[in-house]
Amino acid sequence: MVKHIVMWALNEDAKKDSEKITADLQNRFKSLLGVVDGLKAIEVGRNYNGGKYDLVLLCVFDSKEAQEKYQMHPAHVAIKEIVHSLTCGRECADYEI
């Protein structure tokens, strides 16, 4: 099993609507369940502790191969384009359990 964690910093315009954006992205990412093979769980949340990053994505995959397919899946790529328009910073961590 693989866990994929991404943290994003919202750009200044997006910060004004962070609650709405978080809910929208949560719905978009959740829509990938059952569409992307090997994706077992996915969630997006708003960081309430302050710091550099505003949003966090957590994904759980069956395998590294499933994660690689997710990265190229057209439905994920479409969401990724939206995220890029809203953010100005990103960090990522992946690990196997």
From TrEMBL:
Cited SMART domains: Dabb (SM00886)
Domain Stress-response A/B barrel: 2-95
SUPFAM superfamilies for this protein: Dimeric alpha+beta barrel (SSF54909)
The name this protein goes by in its record: Stress responsive A/B barrel domain protein
Organism: Caproiciproducens galactitolivorans
Taxonomic path: Bacteria, Bacillati, Bacillota, Clostridia, Eubacteriales
